[in-house]
Amino acid sequence: MTAVALGVPRLRSVLPSGEGRPDVPELVDRYGRVARDLRISLTEKCSLRCTYCMPAEGLPAIPRDQVLSTREVARLVGIAGTLLGVQEVRFTGGEPLVRADIVEIVRLSALAAPGIRLSLTSNGIGLDRKAAPLAAAGLDRVNVSLDTLDREHFRSLTRRDRLPAVLAGIAAAHAAGLAPLKINAVLMRETLEDAPDLLAWAIRTGARLRFIEQMPLDADEAWQRASMVDAAELLSVLGRRFLLEPIGREDPSAPAEEWLVDGGPATVGIIASVTRSFCGDCDRTRITAEGGVRSCLFGDDETDLRGLLRDGSSDEEIADRWRLAMWGKKAGHGIDDESFVRPVRSMGAIGG
Fold first, then answer.
1. Interatomic CA distance for residues 175 and 134, integer angstroms
2. Options 3.40.640.10, 3.20.20.70, 3.40.50.10770, 3.30.70.120; which CATH number does 4-10+24-350 get?
3. 170 near 124, Cβ under 8 Å?
4. Each residue's pLDDT tens digit, 9-67
5. What gap in Å lies between CA 220 and CA 52, rounded to an integer?
6. Phi, psi of 234 (to 5 degrees)
7. CA distances from 188 to 153, 154, 174, 253, 290 (A)
8. Which long-range contacts (CB under 8 A, 24 or more apart) does 226-232 make?
9. Has this prediction a pTM greater than 0.85?
10. pLDDT tens digits, 168-200
C-alpha cells in the first residue's frame, strides 16, 4: 500500500479556462449541468473500517491545521447557498460525528444560508447522543450507512462489532424527526443474501433503503468490475421475496432509481453508479476536509479554497474560483472505458 493510494490529493496548479462559460452565478459546466447539491467532508477519521472504504489501519491523519475549521465550513456553506445557487448541503466524512464541533457546524451553516437543506451521512455510531441536538441546530435529515442486519457479517465487513450502536443511532434519528431517514447499503458479495431481510426491516421501521453498487474507491484497491454485485443481480435476489415494480427516479438528477415494493407505498432505491451511470444528470459539487473542490467523485484534480479562506479573499473571489473549478467538470466517470484509471484517493479520503 502506498501513501498515494491512501488519499494524497493533487491540487490543480492551473484552473480550467473560463472561455465560453455563460455569465451566470450558478455552478455550471460545459455540458449544461448545474451543481445544486454540495457534499462537504469534515474529516478522514471514522469509527468503522469498512472494507470498501478504508484500510484496516485507517487513513493517514490530516494535520489539524489543514482541516477546515468550524467557521470555514459554515462560510463555504454560506457562499454556496447565497452566491452559487446550491440548494442542499450534505456533511460527510470519514464519519462526521467524530468531530466534536459537529452541532456547531450545523448551527452556523444554517445561519449562513437560511433556508438551505442540511443533511448528514453517518455510520450511526454516536447518533443516539447527537440526533436531538443536531435537529435543534438545524439539521433536516440523515443518511445512515448500514449494509446488513447480520451481526457477524457486519463485524466482518466493518472490522468492528458495533451493529447495536448503529441501530440505536437510527432509532434516535427517527425520534428526533430527522426525516426522511435513508439507509445506504453498499452491495457486497458477502452480504447479498442479507438484502431481503434489510429491506423488510427498513419497511417495518419507516426508513427509505437505497442499495449502492460498489465503486472503485476502496483504499485496499480490491474492487474488480467482473466480480462486483450489480443492480440486476440484486433485483433477482430481492425478487425471490418481493414483487418489485420500476417507477424510475424522483427527479432526473436523483442518483437512485426507485422500485415499488409489493404494490406500495414502500419503495426501494438502487444507485447503480457503475452499470447505470447517471453522470449526464449529475448535480453535485464536493469539498474535501482540507478545502479542495472536486468536480467529480472520480476525478483526481482538486482546486484549493482553503488558501483563499485564509488569505483575506472575499466571498465573491472564492465563489469565482469555485465556478471555474466546476466549469472544467468531465462528462462522466468512464469506469467502463479501457482508459479508466481509478482515483488515487479512496472514498474515505474524498467524502461520500
1. 12
2. 3.20.20.70
3. yes
4. 555 555 777 889 999 999 999 999 999 999 999 999 999 999 888 888 888 889 999 99
5. 8
6. -60, -45
7. 11, 11, 26, 25, 30
8. 227/189, 228/187, 228/274, 229/187, 229/188, 229/189, 229/192, 230/187, 230/272, 230/274, 230/275, 231/257, 231/270, 231/272, 231/275, 231/276, 232/275
9. yes
10. 999 999 999 999 999 999 999 999 999 999 999
- CA-wise closest residue to 241 among 262, 259, 211, 226: 262
Task: Return the half-sphere exposure (C-beta side, CA atoms, 13 A cut-off) of residue 299.
Answer: 23
Respond yes or no on whether the N-terminal peptide bond of residue 81 is cis (omega within 30° of 0): no
**pLDDT for the residue 266:** 96
Smallest Cα–Cα separation from 296: which of 306, 276, 282?
282
C-alpha cell at 185: 447499503
Distance (Å, rounded) from C-alpha 272 to C-alpha 269?
9
Domain ranges of the chain: 4-10+24-350
